[in-house]
Design goal:
3-stranded mixed beta sheet, elongated, single chain
C-alpha cells in the first residue's frame, strides 16, 4: 500500500485504502446470463424494469432480450417498463 506522508492528502490515502467504487448498472452480459438460464429451463419471461429516465441499465436489458430471443425463438420474452417499486423483477 502507498502512503503519502502529507496531512493535506488524507483523502488520497483513504482512497488508496478502501475498495474502488463501482457502478450499480447491470451489464448486458449479466442480463443475458439471467435470461438465458430461464430460457434453458423452457420458461417464458416477463421482465419489469424501471423507466429509462430512472435507470440506464434498461438499455442493456433490451439488448440482452434481443440476443436471448434469437437463441431461443420458442420462448416468449417481454419487457415492461414498471414503476420503481416493481423494478428488477422477473416472473417466469
Amino acid at each position: 500500500m502507498i502512503v503519502v506522508k502529507n496531512p493535506n492528502v488524507s483523502l488520497f490515502n483513504a482512497m488508496l485504502r478502501y475498495p474502488k467504487p463501482n457502478t450499480s448498472q447491470i451489464s448486458e452480459y449479466a442480463y443475458e446470463e439471467f435470461f438465458r438460464n430461464l430460457a434453458k429451463q423452457g420458461k417464458d419471461i416477463l421482465f419489469m424494469d424501471m423507466a429509462r429516465a430512472v435507470s440506464k441499465s434498461i438499455h442493456n436489458a433490451e439488448k440482452a432480450i434481443q440476443t436471448v430471443a434469437q437463441e431461443f425463438p420458442n420462448i416468449q420474452i417481454q419487457m415492461v417498463k414498471a414503476i420503481p417499486s416493481l423494478s428488477f423483477s422477473a416472473i417466469s
